[in-house]
Amino acid sequence: MEKLLTKNIHLPDSHKIETYRATGGYKALAKALGEYSPEDIIDIVKRSGLRGRGGAGFPAGVKWSFMPKGTERPKYLICNADEGEPGTFKDRVILEKDPHQLLEGIIIASYAIGAQQAYLYIRGEFNLAIQRCEAAIREAYEHNFLGQNIMGKYYSLDILLPIGAGAYICGEETSLMESIEGKKGWPRIRPPFPANRGLFGCPTTINNVETLANVPHIIERGVEWYTSIGTDKNHGPKLYCVSGPVKRPGVYELPMGTPLPEIIFDHAGGLFEGRQLKGVIPGGSSTPILRPDEIQVNMDFDSLAKAGTMLGSAGIIVLDHTMCIVRSTLILANFYHHESCGQCTPCREGTGWLENILHHIEEGHGRPGDTDLLIEICDNIMGNAICPLGDAAAMAIGPAVKKYRDEFDYHLTNKQCLPETRK
Amino acid sequence: MLTSGAREKVEKLIACHPKKEAALLRVLHIVQQDQGYLSPETIASVADLMGMPAIKLYEVATFYTLYNKKPVGKYLIQVCANLSCSLMGADNLIRYLKDRLGVQVGETTPDNKFTLVTVQCLGSCGTAPMMQINDQYYEKLDEARIEQILASL
Questions:
Q1: Is residue A89 part of a domain?
Q2: Minimal CA separation from B97 to chain A, in Å
Q3: Mind telling me how many Å the CA of A59 is from chain B's nearest CA?
Q4: Of A33, A62, B64, B153, which residue is the least packed, with the fewest Cβ within 10 Å?
Q5: CA–CA–CA angle B58, B60, B65 (5° rounding)
Q6: Which pTM was predicted?
Q7: Residue A200: which CATH number?
Q8: Nearest-CA residue of chain B relative to A90?
């Protein structure tokens, strides 16, 4: 497949506006403002079938169409660049190497929903990304792609760059809005939904970096071309991240729906010599793990849902036979417990219980019945928390316990790890 | 007290935000960069500057992990201990750094040069194992590379 989202990243100075413009950058914006009404853009993006790349896979054009018409209240577009899902490092590539592609997407999306103020929220650890985006925003203002009367048209947009401060929860959309408002990142109860009451209580659309980076390509080359990439109802290019003990870890841009084994064994080169596959977490740490006999699956939203897991952020984590499954599950339980915001009981208490029990098992102090207890706790968190963090913890841990129950039982009986996983 | 440079940056930042609260997280980053950490006294003075109650700032400062509530060494070594880095040997590196610096995780060397902490995923899983020292990412680490990095500081 021709590279789209990553076509410029290997060019020298790929982050600068001259490079971006030399490869056709900002032509889509000129087309959007010159040829289309905001309604046209929403219609095009709807027909393109572009689905949110942050994890949920909700159709972006449909989301945009929820924004109220004819309201006096200000409207906002937020770009969620709080990439923090373990195993995910795709948005960082766009932010650092091709920030103008993202800005062009942000400007077109803002025009479509009628926002005159956009926010690009980047996680605080991404210092290079922050510098690059700050510089790109300056350049875009200088070239009148931002500011008053963009490219001489009756459309104006300003953009601010809030910076996170080390809280995974702020990747959750309502928590991110609280964070922009200068508060601790406690998620809000929905409804009301952001399209009606979002940032500062005003209509807000929030999209992931990769989602918005797709937009200029759709506008420039059209719906028919875009829908020819990928599989049924899962269109366009996708950035897949591969990490773990594979020969060529990294970000791979491939059509939506590329088979998982092709990504791991062809593109990423397969596992290190002498390592055997133990499992694959297909879409970032929050998605249920697949056993080796379950990996014959296409990497798109619907195929993975059918396989009982999720595309999520497409952060593929490959586990080999030397990793103890109790330990890998404990690492994730520690993560969710650490990142739980503490607002609601099932998540705050549940993630703590999960971590404690897993810690005991891993240390050889597990008790009979602990595996069932872990599953029961996951069941009690699932669907009962204010935001998806609780569900994420339950999905990361419950299926791992169920699918690798033998290894958990080995730990409980023998008070130690399987021989091949001992350090 | 903030240095005049930091104070100027803060005032400029507040001015470009239609709602001043929205500048808070960035303001705290600037102040931390200036002061090294956010003491209760510092927080109180920033609260005055922003015209907000100190408790609001304290709530934010204590919620987010990137804000240091106590002094850290000149170099804050943050090693990712999440899954992808662990699969690539993060715990060996953490053990190596502990021995090399003579501190436990969470501690600072007696000369206040290094503080060693472990952190959650930094979005650098394809180049694991990795660490961040102050603002800089260091990726694809092994012991030799760590020695090189420490020697360069």
A1: yes
A2: 18
A3: 25
A4: B153
A5: 110
A6: 0.97
A7: 3.40.50.11540
A8: B123
